[in-house]
């Protein structure tokens, strides 16, 4: 990988990126709208720590334009890379065709069939808005800017996941383009490809141009967060809130989906004074039910944690981003995860006191409908897991692009996952982020 990166980097720096190949590709792409063939993008969407270096970037409006681009690459033995939102980008394109899906942005709701057909460039926020008008919601996740299709390839752990199951359980069809043509992939038309797409994602050279996915009743939902201060960064943190969360999740009905993040905020002016230099735990909760039902279910956790802030209340799907409150601006980051059958107590103690480069640890409670066998085969890893523990660290974008191995090694977020390894059952591909260490 490092050798490949160096090769790409050197060619680009020298301004000599295979002009012949690029010219040849351009000849093959003359059928496309002139503005569909663009310059090489400088970055990779939301992930600023990876740079794409394709020969040509195509920004198609139609499936037919995707077909032309894929065929042109295939005829020349060149790779095809897809850029949707960039949240999950790991490897930058090195030559070949980069397909930027932003213009494949149609969302069509069928309120009778209770489905949404979404184009490859659609982010969950647009589907949530379109579905809400019909009293429906998609099985979307914590951040509206994430691409609907890329998220679903990894299984998709939604805001109401323990009640809904994996997002991928709701997929009816993928529309796929590859070197051999295009067509709809369903459980009946191609069971093996349908299973692979639902959990492992596309094969090299495959582009999913649209997906049809089932929708759920919009509500009632109750959600928000309990926010608790664990102490000053650099001092031993009090793990009591982490253990209280663990205890509370042991016996929850499927109607409750919850996760916890622990963020060591740097002592910098850009951080609000109340958070500056503090290690803060945020317990994100969504209950499928009204506020009274949610109040009864959350009461034991509230009294154990005694949070500084409590925002749990009636929740519209379009306000779902408030539950986890993730940063909205593009940045450079690296991260990984472990699926575990249970949370190791010493792992929770270590998270409360984790030192060194800034690392955000996330714990998502799984089980419930996520543990049910899929109606049709899939390749999701995590149906047998009790929790997903993720660790994510910010990177300097320039260092990450120039020396990905060095940047990832210095940030070293995976040190937070070590204490959970004894309970490991697998890894979720959607929560592995950013440039790779080797
Ligand atoms: C802030 C944040 C919040 C998140 N929240 C959740 C969550 O709540 N639940 C959850 O399960 N996951 C979550 N994720 C993980 C997210 O689902 C993955 O990062 C996912 O890969 C993002 O897909 P994307 O299309 O947005 O990103 P991209 O980086 O554009 O795509 C990810 C990968 O899929 C490929 N790809 C995307 N679209 C296509 C296509 N149409 N055809 C072929 N290949 C394609 C890309 O080439 C790339 O390799 C979150 C990630 C972040 C950064």
UniProtKB/TrEMBL annotation:
PROSITE patterns: FAD_PCMH, OX2_COVAL_FAD. One of its GO terms (molecular function) is oxidoreductase activity. InterPro entries: FAD-bd_PCMH (IPR016166), FAD-bd_PCMH-like_sf (IPR036318), FAD-bd_PCMH_sub2 (IPR016169), FAD-linked_Oxidoreductase (IPR050416), Oxid_FAD_bind_N (IPR006094), Oxy_OxRdtase_FAD_BS (IPR006093). Residues 50-218 form the FAD-binding PCMH-type domain. Keywords: FAD, Flavoprotein, Oxidoreductase. Its cofactor is FAD. Belongs to the oxygen-dependent FAD-linked oxidoreductase family. PANTHER family: BINDING OXIDOREDUCTASE, PUTATIVE (AFU_ORTHOLOGUE AFUA_1G17690)-RELATED (PTHR42973), FAD-BINDING PCMH-TYPE DOMAIN-CONTAINING PROTEIN (PTHR42973:SF39). This is FAD binding domain-containing protein. It comes from Pseudonocardia endophytica.
